[in-house]
Write a structure and sequence with these properties.
With 83 residues, the protein is α+β, with helices and mostly antiparallel strands. Helix content is 36%, strand content 25%. It has helices at residues 15-27, 39-43, 62-73, and strands at residues 6-12, 33-38, 51-58.
């Protein structure tokens, strides 16, 4: 079986932001895996300072993912206020 090599593209401390990032990348055809480590997953509590979330993509899609995230960070996906 041919296993994919996953590379970390971004780290988040907020699961909501991690899920938004995942959705953005998936909408552009990028496969995404979220890895959550920390006390939140170990004992079921919530706390931003206790959570470590890694956004991983296949190594063959990392350059495309970097471009998409750079565009997102630069505000290229914001809607213009037409009013």
């Amino acid at each position: 079986m041919n296993e994919k090599k996953w590379k970390k593209i971004r780290e988040e401390i907020d699961i909501i932001q991690a899920e938004l990032t995942k959705g953005l990348l998936e909408a552009h055809g990028i496969q995404v895996f979220i890895s959550r480590e920390g006390y939140e997953t170990a004992i079921g509590i919530t706390g931003h300072s206790l959570t470590h979330i890694e956004i991983l993509v296949p190594s063959d899609q990392i350059e495309d993912a970097k471009t998409i995230l750079a565009d997102y960070d630069a505000g290229k996906f914001q809607l213009d206020d037409e009013e």
